[in-house]
Design goal:
By secondary structure, this protein is mostly beta strands. The chain is built from one helix and 16 strands.
Length: about 250
Protein backbone atom coordinates (compact mmCIF):
# COMPACT_ATOMS: atom_id res chain seq x y z
CA UNK A 1 0.00 0.00 0.00
CA UNK A 2 1.51 3.39 -0.96
CA UNK A 3 2.72 5.49 1.99
CA UNK A 4 0.52 8.40 0.90
CA UNK A 5 -2.57 6.17 1.19
CA UNK A 6 -1.48 4.80 4.57
CA UNK A 7 -1.21 8.38 5.83
CA UNK A 8 -4.75 9.09 4.68
CA UNK A 9 -6.09 5.97 6.36
CA UNK A 10 -4.47 6.54 9.75
CA UNK A 11 -4.46 10.36 9.56
CA UNK A 12 -0.99 11.85 9.56
CA UNK A 13 -1.45 13.37 13.05
CA UNK A 14 -2.00 9.94 14.62
CA UNK A 15 1.51 8.55 14.67
CA UNK A 16 0.56 5.81 17.16
CA UNK A 17 -1.91 4.08 14.84
CA UNK A 18 -1.05 0.49 13.88
CA UNK A 19 -2.31 -1.37 10.80
CA UNK A 20 -3.06 -5.10 10.79
CA UNK A 21 -4.28 -7.04 7.72
CA UNK A 22 -7.54 -8.95 8.30
CA UNK A 23 -8.45 -10.63 5.01
CA UNK A 24 -8.38 -10.45 1.22
CA UNK A 25 -11.44 -10.65 -1.05
CA UNK A 26 -10.85 -11.68 -4.66
CA UNK A 27 -13.28 -10.58 -7.40
CA UNK A 28 -13.12 -10.83 -11.20
CA UNK A 29 -11.84 -7.31 -11.87
CA UNK A 30 -10.38 -6.23 -8.53
CA UNK A 31 -9.45 -7.40 -5.05
CA UNK A 32 -10.04 -5.93 -1.60
CA UNK A 33 -7.79 -5.77 1.46
CA UNK A 34 -9.40 -5.32 4.87
CA UNK A 35 -7.26 -3.59 7.46
CA UNK A 36 -7.70 -3.17 11.20
CA UNK A 37 -6.45 0.31 12.13
CA UNK A 38 -5.71 0.50 15.85
CA UNK A 39 -5.87 3.97 17.38
CA UNK A 40 -5.38 4.70 21.09
CA UNK A 41 -9.14 4.96 21.77
CA UNK A 42 -10.81 3.29 18.78
CA UNK A 43 -10.36 0.70 16.08
CA UNK A 44 -11.24 1.35 12.44
CA UNK A 45 -11.91 -1.10 9.64
CA UNK A 46 -10.55 0.18 6.31
CA UNK A 47 -11.10 -1.38 2.89
CA UNK A 48 -8.47 -0.81 0.17
CA UNK A 49 -9.19 -1.74 -3.46
CA UNK A 50 -6.65 -2.76 -6.12
CA UNK A 51 -6.95 -3.86 -9.74
CA UNK A 52 -5.75 -7.31 -10.77
CA UNK A 53 -2.57 -5.59 -11.94
CA UNK A 54 -2.03 -4.27 -8.39
CA UNK A 55 -3.01 -0.70 -9.28
CA UNK A 56 -4.42 1.22 -6.30
CA UNK A 57 -8.08 2.16 -6.93
CA UNK A 58 -9.38 3.60 -3.66
CA UNK A 59 -10.11 3.10 0.02
CA UNK A 60 -12.88 3.63 2.55
CA UNK A 61 -12.96 3.49 6.34
CA UNK A 62 -16.25 1.61 6.63
CA UNK A 63 -16.51 1.31 10.41
CA UNK A 64 -15.09 2.77 13.62
CA UNK A 65 -15.36 0.91 16.93
CA UNK A 66 -15.06 2.98 20.13
CA UNK A 67 -12.97 1.10 22.70
CA UNK A 68 -14.96 2.75 25.52
CA UNK A 69 -18.12 1.05 24.23
CA UNK A 70 -16.54 -2.42 24.22
CA UNK A 71 -18.72 -5.02 25.98
CA UNK A 72 -21.41 -2.40 26.62
CA UNK A 73 -24.96 -3.71 27.09
CA UNK A 74 -26.37 -0.39 25.82
CA UNK A 75 -24.43 -0.14 22.56
CA UNK A 76 -23.45 -2.50 19.78
CA UNK A 77 -21.92 -2.28 16.31
CA UNK A 78 -21.29 -5.03 13.77
CA UNK A 79 -19.72 -5.30 10.32
CA UNK A 80 -20.89 -7.97 7.87
CA UNK A 81 -19.70 -8.58 4.31
CA UNK A 82 -21.60 -10.32 1.52
CA UNK A 83 -20.28 -11.79 -1.73
CA UNK A 84 -20.71 -8.62 -3.85
CA UNK A 85 -18.99 -7.41 -1.63
CA UNK A 86 -21.18 -4.96 0.28
CA UNK A 87 -19.86 -3.83 3.66
CA UNK A 88 -22.86 -3.49 5.99
CA UNK A 89 -22.40 -1.66 9.29
CA UNK A 90 -25.21 -2.01 11.85
CA UNK A 91 -25.26 0.17 14.97
CA UNK A 92 -27.70 -0.32 17.87
CA UNK A 93 -28.01 1.96 20.88
CA UNK A 94 -30.19 2.14 23.99
CA UNK A 95 -30.90 5.72 25.03
CA UNK A 96 -31.30 7.19 28.51
CA UNK A 97 -35.08 6.85 28.09
CA UNK A 98 -34.63 3.13 27.29
CA UNK A 99 -35.64 3.78 23.66
CA UNK A 100 -33.75 1.56 21.22
CA UNK A 101 -32.36 3.14 18.05
CA UNK A 102 -30.58 1.59 15.11
CA UNK A 103 -28.77 2.63 11.95
CA UNK A 104 -27.59 0.44 9.06
CA UNK A 105 -25.29 1.54 6.25
CA UNK A 106 -24.06 -0.51 3.32
CA UNK A 107 -20.99 0.52 1.28
CA UNK A 108 -19.91 -0.88 -2.09
CA UNK A 109 -17.20 -0.02 -4.61
CA UNK A 110 -18.79 1.02 -7.92
CA UNK A 111 -17.78 3.29 -10.81
CA UNK A 112 -14.35 3.97 -9.26
CA UNK A 113 -15.65 5.14 -5.86
CA UNK A 114 -17.17 3.76 -2.68
CA UNK A 115 -20.89 4.49 -2.59
CA UNK A 116 -23.52 4.28 0.12
CA UNK A 117 -25.99 1.81 -1.43
CA UNK A 118 -27.97 0.84 1.67
CA UNK A 119 -29.34 2.94 4.51
CA UNK A 120 -31.99 2.27 7.11
CA UNK A 121 -32.54 3.95 10.47
CA UNK A 122 -35.22 4.73 13.01
CA UNK A 123 -33.32 7.75 14.30
CA UNK A 124 -35.08 11.09 14.13
CA UNK A 125 -33.14 13.67 12.08
CA UNK A 126 -31.44 16.33 14.19
CA UNK A 127 -32.33 19.10 11.78
CA UNK A 128 -35.39 19.92 9.71
CA UNK A 129 -33.24 21.69 7.10
CA UNK A 130 -32.94 19.72 3.85
CA UNK A 131 -29.75 20.36 1.90
CA UNK A 132 -30.26 20.11 -1.86
CA UNK A 133 -26.77 19.37 -3.26
CA UNK A 134 -27.67 20.31 -6.87
CA UNK A 135 -29.91 23.32 -6.19
CA UNK A 136 -27.69 25.93 -7.86
CA UNK A 137 -26.81 23.94 -10.99
CA UNK A 138 -28.15 24.96 -14.46
CA UNK A 139 -31.77 24.33 -15.51
CA UNK A 140 -31.65 25.12 -19.24
CA UNK A 141 -32.70 21.73 -20.69
CA UNK A 142 -36.27 20.60 -21.36
CA UNK A 143 -36.96 18.62 -18.18
CA UNK A 144 -34.69 20.55 -15.80
CA UNK A 145 -36.33 22.29 -12.88
CA UNK A 146 -37.95 21.61 -9.52
CA UNK A 147 -40.98 19.38 -9.14
CA UNK A 148 -42.59 19.48 -5.69
CA UNK A 149 -45.57 19.06 -3.41
CA UNK A 150 -43.99 21.02 -0.58
CA UNK A 151 -40.55 21.80 0.88
CA UNK A 152 -40.08 18.23 2.15
CA UNK A 153 -41.39 16.30 -0.86
CA UNK A 154 -39.67 17.18 -4.12
CA UNK A 155 -37.34 16.20 -6.93
CA UNK A 156 -34.79 18.57 -8.50
CA UNK A 157 -33.55 17.83 -12.02
CA UNK A 158 -30.52 19.62 -13.45
CA UNK A 159 -28.62 19.78 -16.76
CA UNK A 160 -25.79 17.40 -17.51
CA UNK A 161 -23.45 17.04 -20.50
CA UNK A 162 -26.05 16.50 -23.25
CA UNK A 163 -29.73 17.55 -23.64
CA UNK A 164 -31.10 14.07 -22.80
CA UNK A 165 -28.86 13.48 -19.75
CA UNK A 166 -29.70 14.87 -16.33
CA UNK A 167 -28.77 14.62 -12.68
CA UNK A 168 -31.41 14.55 -9.97
CA UNK A 169 -31.94 14.83 -6.23
CA UNK A 170 -35.10 13.31 -4.75
CA UNK A 171 -36.33 13.74 -1.18
CA UNK A 172 -39.60 12.80 0.49
CA UNK A 173 -41.04 12.59 4.00
CA UNK A 174 -44.19 10.52 4.55
CA UNK A 175 -46.19 9.26 7.53
CA UNK A 176 -45.74 12.52 9.43
CA UNK A 177 -41.99 12.42 8.90
CA UNK A 178 -41.52 8.88 10.23
CA UNK A 179 -40.61 7.52 6.77
CA UNK A 180 -37.93 9.45 4.88
CA UNK A 181 -36.42 8.70 1.48
CA UNK A 182 -33.57 10.37 -0.36
CA UNK A 183 -31.71 9.59 -3.58
CA UNK A 184 -29.23 11.34 -5.86
CA UNK A 185 -28.27 10.01 -9.29
CA UNK A 186 -28.20 10.29 -13.08
CA UNK A 187 -30.95 9.94 -15.68
CA UNK A 188 -30.85 9.38 -19.43
CA UNK A 189 -34.21 10.31 -20.98
CA UNK A 190 -35.66 8.61 -24.04
CA UNK A 191 -38.48 10.92 -25.07
CA UNK A 192 -40.26 11.59 -21.76
CA UNK A 193 -39.11 8.50 -19.84
CA UNK A 194 -36.00 7.59 -17.86
CA UNK A 195 -34.96 4.87 -15.41
CA UNK A 196 -32.58 5.11 -12.47
CA UNK A 197 -30.29 2.08 -12.07
CA UNK A 198 -26.88 1.80 -10.46
CA UNK A 199 -24.38 -1.07 -10.45
CA UNK A 200 -24.49 -2.92 -7.16
CA UNK A 201 -27.79 -1.28 -6.14
CA UNK A 202 -30.99 -3.38 -6.34
CA UNK A 203 -33.10 -0.22 -6.52
CA UNK A 204 -34.80 0.68 -9.83
CA UNK A 205 -36.97 3.78 -10.23
CA UNK A 206 -38.90 4.80 -13.35
CA UNK A 207 -39.54 8.46 -14.18
CA UNK A 208 -42.20 9.68 -16.63
CA UNK A 209 -42.81 13.37 -17.38
CA UNK A 210 -46.18 14.34 -18.85
CA UNK A 211 -46.69 18.06 -19.28
CA UNK A 212 -45.63 19.67 -16.00
CA UNK A 213 -46.04 16.52 -13.90
CA UNK A 214 -43.37 13.92 -13.10
CA UNK A 215 -44.52 10.43 -12.08
CA UNK A 216 -42.13 8.27 -10.06
CA UNK A 217 -42.56 4.50 -9.71
CA UNK A 218 -40.31 2.27 -7.63
CA UNK A 219 -39.30 -1.23 -8.75
CA UNK A 220 -37.03 -3.77 -7.12
CA UNK A 221 -35.72 -3.14 -3.60
CA UNK A 222 -35.09 0.52 -2.77
CA UNK A 223 -34.99 0.06 1.00
CA UNK A 224 -31.36 1.19 0.93
CA UNK A 225 -32.52 4.74 0.17
CA UNK A 226 -35.63 5.00 2.37
CA UNK A 227 -37.21 3.64 5.53
CA UNK A 228 -38.97 0.32 5.16
CA UNK A 229 -42.61 1.40 5.56
CA UNK A 230 -43.04 3.61 2.47
CA UNK A 231 -42.02 3.83 -1.19
CA UNK A 232 -40.77 6.31 -3.78
CA UNK A 233 -44.04 6.08 -5.75
CA UNK A 234 -45.43 9.61 -6.22
CA UNK A 235 -46.27 12.52 -8.53
CA UNK A 236 -44.91 16.07 -8.37
CA UNK A 237 -45.88 19.25 -10.20
CA UNK A 238 -43.21 21.40 -11.83
CA UNK A 239 -42.62 24.72 -10.14
CA UNK A 240 -42.17 27.94 -12.06
CA UNK A 241 -38.55 28.99 -12.43
CA UNK A 242 -37.39 31.67 -10.06
CA UNK A 243 -36.58 34.96 -11.74
CA UNK A 244 -32.99 36.01 -11.28
CA UNK A 245 -32.47 39.39 -9.66
CA UNK A 246 -30.73 41.92 -11.85
Amino acid sequence: IPDSIVEQIIASKDKKAILHPILKIEKEEEYYLLLNVQHPTQQDIAVVVFSKKNKYLGFKVVAAFDEQQKNSRLYGKTLTINKEPTFLVAENKMGEDNAASYEKKGWAYSDSIFKLIFFDSNKKPNSSVIINPIDTLPTMNTYSGDYARDSKNFISIRDLATPNKYQFFLHFEKQNGDCVGELKGLLNFTKNKATYTEKGDPCIIHFTITGNVIAIKEEGNCGNHRNMTCYFNDNYDKKKKRNKKK
